[in-house]
Amino acid sequence: MNEERNKSAICAPCDGEVIKLEDVTDEVFSSGVMGDGFGVLPSSKRILSPVSGKIENAYKTGHAYTIVSDDGLDVLVHIGIDTVELEGRFFEKKVTSGEQIKKGDVLAIADIEKILEAGFDPVCVVVASNSDKMNNIEMNYGKCYSGDEVMKYVITN
């Protein structure tokens, strides 16, 4: 069986620079307690779904989205550090809980400049809370565009 053919990927949710999860300034993410993943320092406002699946929760503040991917991963897309405190300001939700989505569908529009001006770190964190299902993980760090494959893996049952 060709393992490369069975690889799946979590993609970049926005243009920017992919950083290691341990370099994210929030210890809850950087410690890995939330699962394996990565951060993207965003250079674009459109935040896209990194996987195809179903929106489990589109938080009312528009800063975070949980997605159950088609291959069974629980993926969290969290826009910014402590941005829940903005109470929805600077975020425009484009999806609702329960909605089926495809990789690359727009989750939200985030005004990155205004988030920065308000004193918040705009890093977009993507983690799989059940990353123990993932094997043979390969990461691609550095400059990225929305939809680039960042985290390649094989699902184990």
Put the structure in a nutshell.
With 157 residues, this protein is mostly beta strands.
Overview of the molecule:
It is a single chain. The chain is mainly beta and 157 residues long. The protein has one domain: Glucose Permease (Domain IIA). 6% of the residues lie in helices and 43% in strands. The strands form 3 sheets. An 8-stranded antiparallel β-sheet has the order 9-5-6-7-11-3-2-13, with no helix packed on it. Strand 5 and strand 6 form a beta hairpin.
What topology emerges from the helices and strands here?
Blueprint: E1 8-11, E2 16-20, H1 27-30, E3 36-42, E4 46-48, E5 53-58, E6 64-69, E7 74-79, E8 91-93, E9 100-101, E10 106-110, H2 112-117, E11 124-128, E12 134-139, E13 142-144, E14 149-155
Antiparallel strand pairs: 1-14, 2-3, 2-13, 3-11, 4-10, 5-6, 5-9, 6-7, 7-11, 8-10, 12-14
